Amino acid sequence: MSQMSIADSQRLHAYMEKAEERSKYFIGYPIAQDFDYSELYPLLRLPLNNVGDPMVESTYDLNSRSLEQEVLQFFAELLRAPENNWWGYVTSGGSEGNLYGLYVARELYPEGIVYYSEATHYSVQKNIQLLNLRSIVIRTQENGEMDYNDLRQMLQMHRDQPVIIMANIGTTMMEAKDDLSKVKQILRDLAVKNYYIHCDAALAGTYSALLDLKPGFDFQEGTDSLSISGHKFIGSPFPCGVVMVKKNYKERIGKAIPYIGTVDTTISGSRNGHSPVFLWYAIKKLGRDGLRQRAQECLDMAAYTEQRLRDIGVKAWRNPAALTVVFPAPSWELRWKWQIATENGHSHIICMPGVSREQIDEFIGDIEAEMKQRVQLSEVSA
Ligand SMILES: Cc1ncc(COP(=O)(O)O)c(C=O)c1O
């Protein structure tokens, strides 16, 4: 019998209503909201757990490994991983994938220095601290992309140390993409032989690969490992992601653990057994073509948003083929209402699947009203 009091039950329902309401004003974070996983709800009664290696069966058989393997196969093909030389797992999100990539890099190059741009996601700096790695922050250009001249100079000064590059395939605030071909050219020019490249493709990885956007960043373009968030473009009710790595690199990590009857090759012990099923379901239901079309619709929505903002006199802009529209920060009230992230005076809307024209139009109306109010106030005080 439930011990929940009437007050607690009311509190729960009030919370659920609030979450529902806030989901209508959610255009500032890169999270898809257009999913329907209701067919999978019966699975929420089961304690699925993919503890340990996704490729090695476990005595914890109440898992979703077989579907996880198919999700990984999908990403391996999408990211042109070398056949028979890739490995990966479904993570708790992009941050864990970045930690894993840096972990592999450190096992290969314990003396390596990590080079990452100042626009890099905050998780990377924390991961570097956790792994006790040396690092150098590289300046960015105005659009958020790495400043390659600064990278060249820094590398030149530390030519005797192995290099670990953390490249951004869509920075958090401006969705700028670092160009691997330029980075590799610098490494060649400086005759650096010992290097490792990890791509933080948490934000833009899936749709950039689906639409074959430039600059390329996959295994054929030279990445050694790569992290993508699953809840961002594909969408999921809980955070998740995928990390992929060249298999020969990762083989230094992992011990057989009798208790779980499998190999401990991942960062966390217990792993969400539901998220691989949700990702699998979305991939199968939409298919590559459906996912591609969804990505194109997002790009169209981003172009629409940018244009609408410009039409009312807001200095909005986007990086090439980005879903992120950047503009000067509006008032705190509007940022709060629409859950809009802001840094150094820049705000953004990210046109993820589920962001609708109606939402954009309502937001534009809010901004316009705010701009008019500002003009009226300045007229009164003049
Ligand atoms: C560029 C980038 N990297 C990493 C992350 C972290 O991903 P997650 O929230 O899935 O851990 C984010 C999240 O917004 C991001 O934008």
Automatic annotation (TrEMBL):
Keywords: Decarboxylase, Lyase, Pyridoxal phosphate. It comes from the Bacteria. The keyword Lyase applies. NCBIfam families: PRK02769.1. It is an enzyme of class 4 (lyase). PANTHER family: PTHR46101, SERINE DECARBOXYLASE. Belongs to the group II decarboxylase family. GO terms for molecular function: histidine decarboxylase activity. It holds the Pfam family Pyridoxal_deC. This is Histidine decarboxylase. The keyword Transmembrane helix does not apply. Its cofactor is pyridoxal 5'-phosphate. Its EC number is 4.1.1.22. InterPro entries: Group_II_Decarboxylase (IPR051151), PyrdxlP-dep_de-COase (IPR002129), PyrdxlP-dep_Trfase (IPR015424), PyrdxlP-dep_Trfase_major (IPR015421), PyrdxlP-dep_Trfase_small (IPR015422), Pyridoxal-P_BS (IPR021115).
